[in-house]
Queue: 2 jobs
Job 1
Amino acid sequence: MKIKQSFRLTGIAATLFLATGLYSGSAVSQEVNWRAVSHQLPGTARFDGTVKPFAECVSAASGGRMNIQVFGGGVLHPVSESLDAVRNGVVQMGMIWSGYWAGKNPVFALAGSRPGDPINSFSENFYRAEKLEPIVAAAYEKEGVKSLGAFDFGPAEILNSVVEVRSLEDFKGKKVRAGGIGASYYTALGASAVTLTGTEIYQALQLGTVDMAEYNDWLVNKEMGFHEVSKYVIEPVLHTGATDDKELIVNPDAWEKLPDDLRGVVYACRDQARYLSAINYDIGNQKAKNEWLAGGVQIIQLPEADVLEARKIGAKVMLEFAQKSPEAAEYLKTYAQVLTDLGYTELAETLTAK
């Protein structure tokens, strides 16, 4: 993310708000200062490419009336405590992956990732996100937090490996770092799921504590140094396609106190973050992949028959999660309809089969 591009875009946002009358210096005299947390780490594309520009956009578009101080994963508290921190007002905002709360509500597990998801493009990702947002927002409301929707776009994750895995049979007995519904999925494939934070993965791969690790895409994983300790990347992506890398959540009381024009600023800057993620993450991901391959990491292509079987197993895992609550069942029903809308009818039929 280039700083010049960030200021140019935030300047556009500020001009838009001034021109449309959404910014009004007399609307509130007191400056609003918020703190926000993300699970991503400062210095990485996922933080510097959208989280920081979002805060810059809010400040510029509000004429300095609203300022957001952003903190990376683990700086203020463990990432797993971020939902509670937003609810309790320790921070006013979070840009966090929903899968971290999988244990609180099965909707969060499904919202975080969907085993076998064929969606990879930016446009299809946000079509799905908008269709499913009412269900996700209701789940967050039960936790005492308000959701403002998907924050940014995440290309499909890759599966890093230090061992050769050339078939579904080879997954049996392997130790895989995974989170959320992914842990259930790899367990269904016969592997053992291991819970690790992002900062623990490098050493775990290096020492053989895990055989494989799922964390993020080519770009972010390279920034984390995983290309240095991975020998292989297993394709195609079995667990999940493109994701809403972060959900934008806020403390309800803090949100209610914001005047309407500042709420509009937050939404507009969220949309800018989505736009930036489409450019920075997708292009950066392609470039990083080439660098991984140039460095000697090998891609292992799984047999087509195994991929089809893996997707069926993924559908079964999702159906099991859908049985955990009426809201989860509604999520999966809506997701199946989205797949039908986008032409992925075979998987949709698998998810709706009686």
Note: The radius of gyration is 20 Å.
Job 2
Amino acid sequence: MRLHYLQHVPFEGLGAIEPWALKNGFTITKTSFFADEPLPPVDAIDWLVIMGGPMNIYEHGEYPWLVREKEFIGRAITAGKKTLGVCLGAQLIADVLGGRVTRNAHKEIGFFSVTLTDAGKKSPLFGALPASFNAFHWHGDTFSIPPGAIHTASSEACVNQAFTFGRNVIGLQFHIEYRPEDIDAMYGLCADELIPGGTYIRNKADTRTAEADAMNPHLCALMDGLNSR
């Protein structure tokens, strides 16, 4: 299997997705938009993974590659490629599928509980996860559930945390791919987003390595399920 991922900033890579893919014998390639790298032909990949980033999906003037990225995501989904979007990646998928991305009522940073919806509990993919689990969050925007998609998870601060579309597409607002070192990078490089007194903002001192270790198996369960479809 050929996994290709789209990376928007140097510090948001595959995380725990990489060891999962290598263990399963995947080849891995990437497009780094921050380095102006080209996109591959859609028929040259089997999986598409779209990572996070600090930009808004509508900032086409500052990030002109967003236009061709959205077009590529649309072609990959139409071609039936297995597609996973995380945070910004999920927002991009939602937009491509006809959803809307807007400012969330709360900025959500740190570990917070995610709860499966009734549809999520019945989902062939999300049904393999616990009904409620801790995940890492770092976002200020949110997506609407696209037409035809299934809403699969929520949190207290953000109603739309995950969705599936068809058999092969998953969108996750939260991060279960982050490892401890990825979380350290976020707190080190994006500390300006830690607004004092935010209801759903937790600083680095409130995070624990064990929480990251506990959520990575949930990522693997989703990937296993998508891989088997």
Note: The longest strand covers residues 101-116.
